[in-house]
Amino acid sequence: MSRAAEDSEVAAAEAGPGPVAAERRGRPRSAAADSAIIEAVLRLIENGVSIGELSMERIAREAGVGKATIYRRWSGKSALMLDVMRSLDVQGPPPAGDSVRDDLVALLEFLRRRGLAKRSSALLRTVVSHVQAQPELWAEYHNAVVRARHEALLAVLRRGVANGEIRADHDLETLADLFIGPMLARALLHEWKELPEGLAEDIVDMVLEGVRPRAESAAG
Description:
The chain is mainly α. It is built from twelve helices and no strands. The termini are far apart. Residues about 1-25 have low confidence and may be disordered.
């Protein structure tokens, strides 16, 4: 495709979904092109490029595709970044349901291992720094990915309350933050801090120690 033709196609994509754009978006997508574009964004972020510096031209050049190829797939950079974040998401194992403590440790260990992954940490730090400018990006990611994990954690905490392992006089949303907060702080805000083995167990045991039913309450 000539440069003039490609520029014309990009202009049509940027102008909005007219009949021609709608027809193009209806074409079967190439999985190879999708992967190449997402991989290009990941490489650029790993190399320290901020979201503000990520232009469609730069992404296309890194991916070895035309800019129009990107616009046929995503309406803009925010939509592309959402799929980039989704590409890094790995579904954690469902809680076993045998022990509240063990289930909490498993959930936090999953976060610890993700924090050790360079790509996940680099991407999330970059996105968090960009949240104030593009809040809809984080909101979409939260609704698509984070919410399911948060609900899984709340389900474990509710089970802990129901079976008497956790006191019922605590707000579970706040309690969930106490479990997750230390891991996220190290992974996102203090990346120079280590995420050693056993950290998940330490966090869970420290928090559970403070929220276990008191002896007099249990006796009564």
